[in-house]
Amino acid sequence: MRRPNSNFFDFAFNYCFINVGGMWFAVYLIENMKKNMELQREINRTEKLHVMGELAAAVAHEIRNPMTVVRGFMQLLHQEQIEEHKKRMYTELMIGELDRAEEIINDYLTFAKPEAKHREEIDAGVEVQNAVNVMSSYALLRNVETITGIDHGLFVYLEPSKFRQCLVNLIKNGIEAMPDGGGLQVYAYRRGDSIVVDIIDEGIGMSPEEVSRLGSPFYSTKEKGTGLGLMVCYRIIELFNGKIHVRSEQGKGTAFSILLPASLEKK
Q1: What distance lies between CA 130 and its chain's CA centroid?
Q2: Is the pTM for the entire model greater than 0.70?
Q3: Is residue 153 part of a domain?
Q4: Mean predicted lDDT score pLDDT of the chain
Q5: Per-residue pLDDT tens for 196-221?
Q6: Domain range for 174
Q7: Is 5 inside any structural domain?
Q8: In a domain, 127, yes or no
Q9: 213: domain CATH number?
Q10: Spatial distance between the Cα atoms of 146 and 163, rounded to a whole number of angstroms
Q11: Count: domains in the chain
Q12: Are 104 and 66 in contact, with CB atoms under 8 Å apart?
């Protein structure tokens, strides 16, 4: 026969078991949360170090562009029987590229929060022609012929130095896409209310998947590329309310089209 207080003992046992089990489970959850938080902090720290490393590599990549141009003009200066006016032109272009390198460094200091501080109305055709001239020595050294069709009176409202940085980067990419030489076409013209700049190479081209990933952080089709150079171009053009369209076919080349709103004062 069951004793009268057996229910009390059963209740007390179950109560103690549940409390002890609950406390143990709570301690387990707290300790597990602490470990997860510590692990998350370590992951965040590792990601920050990784991003810093990638950013440093990207800065080096961007600085290499004007340095390559300066090196090309210095090689041309070593040639014999160079006319004096060409020497002055090459020197001025080299100084301009060194100044641009300084501007790039300043741009990356504010990379996380891009802004245009010195917008002005400029002729996009003039800027495109200047970018082609700057990259002419690099194209010549890599056996690339540059074909241009550049209209003038293509007024846009933006920051000239940032636009120039984008143009030089895209032209350099087009030249490098043709390791065996070829033709690089650069056009600037008006289409409706937009100013369009086309940069077309005859290089190795890209697959649709590669095209879709262009402009993503740390993605590049180059073996040693960081991808941030092209991402900077996308962000610069977006900053000026423009767009970049890409058409490419493997083995047949790539066409980059920059579309910018024409200046209201000059439409």
Answers
A1: 21
A2: no
A3: yes
A4: 79
A5: 999 999 888 887 777 776 655 544 44
A6: 47-266
A7: no
A8: yes
A9: 3.30.565.10
A10: 20
A11: 1
A12: yes
